[in-house]
Amino acid sequence: MIRVILPAHLKNLAGITGVLDLEIATAATQRSVLDAVERAYPMLRGTIRDHASGKRRPFVRFFACGQDVSHEQADAPLPEAVSLGREPFMVIGAIAGG
Amino acid sequence: MSHVRVLVGTKKGAFILTSDGRRSQWKVEGPLFGGWEIYHLKGSPADPDRLYASQSSGWFGQLVQRSSDGGRTWEPVGNAFTYDGIAGTHQWYDGTAHPWEFKRVWHLEPSIEDPDTVYAGVEDAALFKSADGGKTWAELSGLRKHGTGPRWQPGAGGMCLHTILLDPVNKGRMFVAISAAGAFRSDDHGATWRPINKGLRSEHIPDPTAEVGHCVHRIALHPSRPEVLFMQKHWDIMRSDDSGDSWREVSGNLPSDFGFPIEVHAHEPETIYVVPIKSDGEHFPPDGKLRVYRSRTGGGEWEALTKGLPQKDCYVNVLRDAMAVDSLDACGIYFGTTGGQVYASRDSGDTWEPIVRDLPAVYSVEVQTLR
Question: B87: which of A3, B159, B208, B269 lies 20 to 30 Å off by Cα?
Answer without folding.
Answer: B208
